[in-house]
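Handout, section 4.2: multi-component inputs.
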Amino acid sequence: MAERMRLGFVGLGNLGAPIAENLLQSGHELYVYNRTPSKSIPLKEKGAIVCDGVASLARQVDLVFTMVSDDAALKNIVQGKDGLLENGRPGQIHVSMSTILPVTAEAMESLYTAQNKKFLAAPVFGRPEAARARKLNFVLSGDEITRKAVEPLLKDAGAAGIFDFGNRITAANTVKLCGNFLIAAALEAMGECLALGKESGVDVQQMWSMLTQTLFTSPVYVNYGNIVLQQKFEPAAFTAKLGLKDMNLVLSQAASVNQPMPLANLLKNNLQELVESGRENIDWSAMSIVSQKNKPETVVHG
Amino acid sequence: MAERMRLGFVGLGNLGAPIAENLLQSGHELYVYNRTPSKSIPLKEKGAIVCDGVASLARQVDLVFTMVSDDAALKNIVQGKDGLLENGRPGQIHVSMSTILPVTAEAMESLYTAQNKKFLAAPVFGRPEAARARKLNFVLSGDEITRKAVEPLLKDAGAAGIFDFGNRITAANTVKLCGNFLIAAALEAMGECLALGKESGVDVQQMWSMLTQTLFTSPVYVNYGNIVLQQKFEPAAFTAKLGLKDMNLVLSQAASVNQPMPLANLLKNNLQELVESGRENIDWSAMSIVSQKNKPETVVHG
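Output:
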């Protein structure tokens, strides 16, 4: 456990809230801010100090964690005269846990460096239940001294694993996008696989048990497989809306390096269909049934 | 180990040969046949009896295993006056390990039942090295008494796992197609993921190590990931040509139950591109680099 510190936490969503709570439980003094104030209440009851804006939060603490929904939200809380950067203490460290474009992380690092402050990229793999169980996996990149200083705090935040990708600030968010793409691809594959088995009259529960005992023993297949089998997409741990945002980031990054990703395109289209049909707040794993739902109405068994 | 039996084995390809060798090593008397005679030589040297056709093989044995390349090849060795069925002893059992359409397995079962003989579907998951290490996973369906009788022989053939899907003859081949689809989907996902990471300047070896330690711990991601990272697609353990055949079977089965599978379509197209460009005999995991190879010639980093 790290030495007791005065920490800030901005963004108390599905994943931000349990991470902030871990920091509190690890003994740190915690200043929190969330755009929707009601989300701060449970943390206030556990001892967090609720701030009325990011400027007042930035003035109180030595290090700020942020976990916000997208690149625009991050720029919004950092920049401007009421932003984290302008109001931060000298030498303040900003640890960004959000899934954002590598190029956004790079822009943030430049802004912070110009003010002799530090920006670190620390996106995270894990759903809210993993945060509560302290089984998160953080991917880390940026300035070396800052990385070493922050590692013990990530353990306090609920890290089971911390994967250090070195000095290049863009690395961690690239890895995060690659990982989220891989998860989304597995979801679509599971959906099509289970639909084919079911429609062909196989006991898909048994089939899934076999596949996850042999070739597909990973947590992604075991955990999401159960969700897809039961089609239990609510409550969402990670919404279709956020999934679509991430697939757009993947495609944007791919375009910036001129890399064709036909599977990422397919995943984006399925997530978009979920969102456009008004299901943006169900779990993104529902992407797995989009193809199935697109069956022609008249079913002719051949 | 099962009681010593007189067994037949037809189809001594990449996977058939080591399975046949396992049966020999388990102490059975083994009669073998392969269309290309030279492939029988290594087994002959280990004690197998080489037959000059499936008819003479069928007359010698109580049970025949087959591992042939496709539905047509299976029909070809079974049917006609020189086929396995016509020449088989009374009550002979045919255990089909090939990856074929469920409907083909159903047609075979009907033919065998009409002659009071038995046909069992026992497709197998595992590459040649898994066969040699006796770590294969068999999926089994068909007549119950026959299934129970065959299980010990599958252990002798190299099974680490035998998954019994019951009486319906179509079940095992459906599960096999679902599983192969899931592997192919993972290959394409790995290919796009690693290409994105590499083009974005990340240490992809480290990224893959991280992903396979956390979310993607499965054998499929660990083993194929190394092949894709090193782009070591020769010698092939399972060729692009056979992969394409399997994706066509998946799509054919999907069409027969009216199930859209957009990801399976994408995989089929990539495999087809490999085959049409003359790379049909390299490993099917090379599918993972088709999208990457399709990059426009002029690369503009954005």
